[in-house]
Amino acid sequence: MIHDVVLFHSVLGRRPSVLQWAEDLRAAGHRVHTPDLFDGETYDDIDDGMRKVEALGAGLRERTLAAVAGLPPGIVVAGFSMGAAVAVDVATLVPGVRAAVLMNSVPVPDGPWPDGVPAQLHFTEGDPWVGPTDLERFRAAAERAGAALDVHVYPGGKHMFGDAAYPEYEPELAELMRVRVLDFLARIGE
After folding, report:
1. How far apart are CA 122 and CA 61, in angstroms?
2. Alpha carbons 134 and 107: distance in angstroms, whole number
3. Whole-model pTM over 0.85
4. Could you report how far apart the first and last alpha carbons of the chain are, in Å?
């Protein structure tokens, strides 16, 4: 099945690796949107990106919701790290989201997870940005909503292992994640 996928970038901004992921999803037939929540700014350091997020404050949510306004119902939200948290925000605030793909993070929803909306999670053992109870809390929210959860835990403790231009890049893990994401997209909505 072909989907409209909204792919949100991490705190590093909409870097070439995000655009490459989008191209890979397009090559599989999906319509992919890559909103730039940072006005073209990109970073090589997570702390610099976090300062941008802090400067945006509530404006980040406004930009996020504006990015999905006008898209057809049934979008799939996806994101890397901070972008996964943004995707969770959209899934819980915008009716009709079909599924969520959350990479390099396990962002726990602030409110209830939407009924029946499946999610796929990708993160490493020992990821310093994933709290010790995040997966259990996300799993509980998904179970309450009757939503399928597809969890993939990778070896190592690297956070941004899927970003080809980041020092933590792990090409074999990134490729495995890409294959699993494409498989998930092919299965949802059947």
Report:
1. 23
2. 7
3. yes
4. 7
